[in-house]
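Sequence dictates fold. Next comes a concrete instance:
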Amino acid sequence: MLMSPVEFFRTLPKKECPECGEHMEEQAESYMMECDRCLSKKGE
């Protein structure tokens, strides 16, 4: 049985930072993989 698109997106796991494992807030037009904290560490 096929799942509705709404149910599919509702059941996706939360986005997780690969550097520290922190759950990230999803943003519609963001393709960032790391969280803000890890990104700021890279800039130093």
